[in-house]
Design brief:
Length: 469
């Protein structure tokens, strides 16, 4: 989505407010929706507009907010400007003035309004056209608390925005409200901001007063009215955050279903990141997908799975209650693999085709070649496992000596019995067998049977102690 305008676009994001009703130590704009801080949603949308820069007005919690905004990986140039104290939205944008070039159109957004769509803002910018003041508006059945769009004269042109607290009874009947989002040529914005005052019920500098000044200057004010309340919904409380999360999740779920993904229940699915699906993917209820996940053709995900930062190849089945998190290293699951139920795949698990990982098996930073199986109660960490290896129940790789991690190599066609400890670094030669209950500290030859445990002793006809009377 790229924007073709003859003028550059700069974004101002207001994020200095306190967010008292969140009752949280975390500043409101850092609360997460779909796993992403609210203000980051706003910056992501700005990046989709190909904005030249973003100026974020910080204040409350600035010490926490600014490092998030200035972290590497931001798709557009972000600057932070502090507003202290907070004297209103007009005062907030005044702080950005020195950081704004004169040749652009400024789009003003709020850090607590996360779901505005880029195409909506593009339409707003088009209405501004580099010369008008464009306001994003919406009709609300209950407009209480919002600034009202006051129209009058020929063609019912916009005359002013009147804040709820300043409005007359008649004005309070107006259902068209200002969303808090506008697009305005930088030069005009600057001239108007220099002229606003705080002569109103709240004693604040209102950004919305720029409308009167535009009208006085003969600049036309255009309202771009939308009918989707989610796009202008601001978050002030945990209840509103949860409501918007649900609405957003439902929309994402519908988008996936339109692409052919079969979600058993769109109301019980959470995507906190990006999910790419090939054809005929099925996802059962209560799954959470995080980070970047890609699912191949015909993949089936059972109920109650958490999948994060992983790639699952075609035909693989992830049974219920499996937890996969690749974090930075990623996890890959090969074609036709069977994972779970109750499996845990950690960063660096690379599983080949037709690998089986069963219940209560943990795999970390290990490669399992085609057809390898670890079906019950086992740990594979820092291991390289060959084709067709069978890894018995209760066996582990002892990969950590208290200071360093070491690798275990299990060559093709090895059978590891139950309850074995493979003390790394160690190699089990191809086709070898390790007897159940063995603790293996030395590498073994291909084809060898290795047993390393106390020899069994049996005492014939042994009488168990009996209770003294
Ligand atoms: C504002 C609009 C109102 C509109 C409503 C939509 C004004 C005067 N009014 O009202 O017309 O209907 O949004 O939600 O603009 N902020 C700062 N510094 C400040 C004050 C606010 O950064 O000094 C930030 C807040 O953190 C918030 C945003 O600006 O992100 C809007 O502030 P808020 O107090 O919610 O504005 P409203 O009074 O609700
Ligand atoms: Ca508000």
């Amino acid at each position: 989505m790229s924007l073709n305008t003859p003028f550059p676009v700069d974004v101002v994001v207001m994020a200095a407010g306190k967010g008292t009703r969140m009752k949280s130590r975390l500043p409101k704009v850092l609360q997460r929706l779909a796993g992403v801080p609210l203000v980051q949603h706003v910056l992501n949308t700005a990046a989709q507009l190909n904005a030249r820069s973003a100026v974020v007005i910080t204040g409350h919690g600035a010490d926490q907010v600014e490092p998030v905004l200035l972290a590497p990986g931001q798709a557009l140039a972000v600057r932070c400007v502090r507003q202290e104290p907070q004297l209103g939205t007009g005062h907030a944008v005044q702080q950005a003035v020195p950081a704004l070039a004169d040749d652009g159109v400024v789009v003003i957004l709020s850090g607590d309004v996360p779901l505005t769509q880029a195409d909506t803002l593009q339409a707003l910018i088009a209405q501004c056209g580099g010369q008008h003041l464009a306001l994003l508006t919406i009709d609300f059945a209950d407009p209480t608390g919002y600034g009202r769009i006051v129209r009058g004269g020929d063609g019912q042109k916009v005359q002013a925005i009147v804040e709820h607290k300043d409005a007359t009874e008649a004005q309070r009947q107006i259902q068209e409200v200002y969303s808090g989002i506008m697009a305005v040529p930088a030069k005009l914005l600057k001239s108007w901001l220099a002229r606003i005052d705080n002569q109103n019920v709240q004693g604040e500098y209102y950004l919305t007063d720029v409308v009167k000044l535009a009208v006085a200057d003969g600049v036309s004010v255009v309202a771009h009215k939308i009918d989707d309340p989610l796009q202008v919904a601001g978050i002030n409380s945990p209840v509103q955050l949860a409501e918007l999360e649900r609405a957003h999740q439902l929309r994402q779920a519908h988008r996936l279903m339109e692409q052919g993904v079969r979600l058993k229940d769109p109301a019980r699915f959470d995507l906190r990141g990006q999910l790419d699906c090939a054809q005929d993917v099925e996802i059962d209820v209560n799954c959470i997908v995080e980070g970047h996940v890609s699912l191949g053709e015909g993949v089936k995900i059972g109920a109650h799975c958490v999948l994060a930062n992983c790639t699952i190849a075609a035909g693989a089945v992830i049974h219920p209650f499996t937890h996969i998190d690749g974090e930075k290293l990623g996890v890959s699951v090969g074609e036709g693999a069977l994972i779970g139920p109750f499996a845990r795949l950690r960063p660096g698990a690379q599983l080949g085709a037709e690998v089986h990982i069963g219940n209560f098996v943990e795999v970390k930073n290990s490669t399992l070649a085609k057809g390898a199986k670890a079906n019950h109660l086992a740990y594979l960490g820092d291991a390289t496992v060959g084709e067709r290896v069978n890894y018995g129940a209760g066996s582990i790789t002892a990969n950590y000596d208290g200071a360093n991690k070491h690798r275990t190599i299990i060559e093709a066609d090895v059978h590891i019995g139950s309850n074995c400890v493979l003390v790394a670094p160690v190699t089990i030669g191809a086709g070898g067998t390790v007897g159940g209950g063995s603790t293996i500290t030395k590498s073994t030859e291909p084809g060898a049977l290795s047993v390393a445990r106390g020899k069994q002793t049996s005492i014939a006809n042994w009488a168990r102690p009996s209770k003294k009377k």
